[in-house]
Every structure is written in C-alpha cells, then in structure tokens.
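Long-time lurker. I teach an intro course on protein structure, and each term I like to show students one example going from raw sequence to a predicted 3D structure in token notation. This year I'd like something fresh instead of my usual example. Would anyone be willing to generate the tokens for the chain below so I can use it in lecture? Attribution to the forum is fine with me.
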Amino acid sequence: MQSIKKFFIFLFFFTTLRFAYSQELFLSKKAPVWNKVSTGKAICTPAAVPDGFVIAHDGNKFVCFSKSGEILWQKKQDAFPKGFQIASSKYGILYFAGKDGELNVLNSSGVSILKIKNENLRKIDYILPGLDGRFFIFSGGNILCYGQNGICKWQLEKEFSLQIKPELADDGSFFVFLTEQKAVKVSPYGETLEMLEFPQRVLKAFCSDSSLYVLFADRTIKKYDPDENGRFSADSHVKTFALPDEIQLDLNDKKFFGISDETMQASSEIKKMEKHLILCTQKEMFCFLPANLSEKSEISRKIIFDLDNSSESTFLTDGSYLLLSMPTWETLYFKFAESVHSNIKISKIAAVQGTLSLQTMLKCR
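-- Reply from a regular --
Happy to contribute to a lecture. Here you go:
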C-alpha cells in the first residue's frame, strides 16, 4: 500500500512538472476563455486597449470586447479603405485612416475626438502613437507629427521601408527603417539622432524598455542597448542570439516578433528570472529564452494553430494570451498563463510566471 502511494505521488509530481514545462500545445485541444460571433469578418489586426480589444469588421463596424468577452461598445463607420489598420496608444486612444486619407481619432469609449485632413495623408502607411499625446503618421515618403489638438508640429520628407514597421523607444523617439538593412532614430521633435546599419537583412524589430531587438534573415537576433551617450551603434553594447533549432523560419510568412508579457523562469536556472521572446507566424507561436550562439535557446511554450481556417485569421498576442478573429466571424480568446499559475500553487516547483511592468503588443502586418 505504501509503495502504491509513493507511485501515485511520483506520478502526480511528474505529470504536474511535465504540464508546467510542456513545450507543445494544439489550440484544437484547448478551450477558449470565450468565443463570440460577430456580424462580420475582421479586416485587420485587432487593437489592444486597457479594457480589452477593438476589432474592425467588414460590415463597417467597430466592436470593443472586454477581456471577459463582453461587448463594451460598438460603432458604425463609413467604408474602410483598402489596407485599413488600427493603432492604439497605451491610454486606449485609437487612430485609423478613413476614406480619402482622413485621419480619425477615437477615445477608449469609441467616441470621436479628432478628425484631420491633410493633402499629404492620401495614403497612410503607418500610424505610431507617441508618449505625450503626439502621434506620428508615415505617408508616402513623409513623416508627420501631430499633437493631441490636431495641429501638425513638424514634417519630414524621408523614404522608408514598408516591410518593417516603425518602433517607438521608451524616451519618445522612434526608429524608422529606410531599407531592410538601414534605420534612423528620430527624436519626438523631428531631429535625426542616429543612423544604424545592420549586417544582414532585417525581418522584424521591436523596442522594449531601453533596448532594440532585431530579427535577421540568417536566424540571429541582436539586442542593441544604448551606450552612455544614448547611441545604439556601439558594438560593445550589442548581444547576439540564435533562434532555437525547432523554429522553422519561413522568410515569406507574416510574423509577430516581440517580448513576452510574462516573466518566466528558465528550468535550468531556478533562481534566475528572464524575459522571453515571442515569434509568431500564421501557423504557430513560440515563446523562448534567448541564448548565446554557443548555447541552446530554451523554448518555454509552443502553440500550434490547428483550428479550421486559423491560417486565414487575424490575431493579436503578447505571449500570455491569443486573440483570434476567424473568417467564420468568430472571435476566440485563449489564455495561457493561468494554467501555469495554478500548477505553481500545487507543485511549488513549476515555472514561475508574472507580469512585466512594460507590455509590448505584437501586431501582424
């Protein structure tokens, strides 16, 4: 009887530990937290706001869902232009281009607070919210900065790459890619601060805290940290990592690349907390701990998108959740961090997870 009890205790802890460190999860085998059917198909990547998510449907309507799946507000809109996109600030302010290049700004309750018309806004490529109420518009070789009162503060003529979206730094400046191997850092006042040249073709980039992370076509990731003068081009402040071997990188795939909103603990270093990176395609998502080129990167989570039509969906993630807007008009919300939290309470040896102070949203382009 005693040996049977020991066997079941061992089996319980082994199963718990295996579940906590499970590297592979099929979405078809995980129930969503909620599933809602809307009145149309999502036409672009959803936008994250403090209270939930905003989705634009092909029925010319915005729908804002709470994180528990409740509809907070809906708003009818004129026909969305081709290539429509929504940008959101950390305060929940929404920015989008209407017909004829008119820029629209909504507050977090869906109320229109600003409309801007400018002859240079016939085609808006990107909208980048700033830190102090200002926002930057990238349109046909022009970069324009507007204040929250709708007045244009400055304008630059600068050709930029449409393949890599601009990234906001924590000091209010931003990086804009001129080509797939060259970027410029611009201050919030329109001043060129620094030119950066990269050794390989850049696929994706993002900023987190004071660092710039860049994913290259040769499967390497470089983390650029500013030196004492705030410049990113010093080789002594660059760290290079390799993608895990398990990640098969298709250069033509749409991708998410960013940092996880969770703090996960490496199984090999029980006392060391690390930030995990996220790489998503239309088929799967990986959360992994970057390692030096001579070491093996550790995958903490792999999610396989095996639902019917999931490859045709639009989606949003920060590593701890996945919001899927399906072509069948369904919106599904999955949460991944909660199951690990529950296992921590039981086993006391599972991977520890929490929330970072800075959340970086990944948006598919």
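Some talking points for your students: The longest helix spans residues 2-20. Residues 185 and 194 are 5 Å apart (CA to CA).
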